[in-house]
Amino acid sequence: MEESSTKNNYSDSIKDKIFNEEFMPNIHAMYNFAHRLTYDEDDAKDLVQDTFMKSYRFINSFHQGTNAKAWLFRIMKNSFINDFRKKSKQPAKVDYQEVEGYYNSEGTQKSVTTDLRIDTVKNLIGDEISNALSALDVDFRTVIILCDLEGFTYEEMAKILDIPIGTVRSRLHRARNLLKEKLQSYAQSMGY
């Protein structure tokens, strides 16, 4: 969230208007960003929900008419990093219902539901690129997502990530090089 020396004191009706007209139109972009960060549909939905709850809670810090999408992405990035730190300190969890369902199926064909958004992204990006992107450190993955997939400017990325523009540029350069290294063997196998 942007630091500001002045906070707004919006009425409830103005808060609702800002939320519905400036924040909600970004919900699909927020989900896509969350999914690319988490690579899990449920975690992405939770992250979007958490982001929108925080955006409403801290709406007085938002300046109406500024870049709402960048402001929301910054909240999401901070939430993801904080949650990522918490999860990295917790032991791995097992979904016993999933395990039980698998072993009780006795060879029966389990129904598969298709999420068209995920299939579309996989078809557009390709499994190798998607895997290489997910293997990057979160700082490098985030700059690639923000710049190359979401189209943010360096200035917007600097605000979202709360780092200087020079750091954005160097991190993006390093991230692209790491991605290139990870994809080099795949490209050679494809004849490039």
Describe the structure.
- With 192 residues, this protein is mainly α.
- It contains 10 helices and no strands.
- It has helices at residues 12-23, 27-38, 41-57, 68-88, 96-104, 116-125, 127-135, 138-149, 154-161, 165-189.
- The longest helix has 25 residues, at 165-189.
- The radius of gyration is 19 Å and the shape is elongated.
Descriptive terms for the model:
mainly alpha, elongated, 192 residues
Shape: elongated
**Biggest sheet: strands, sense, closure?**
none
Protein structure class: mainly alpha
**Helical coverage, percent range:** over 70%
Average of the residue pLDDT scores: 80
Short description:
This protein has about 190 residues and is mainly α.
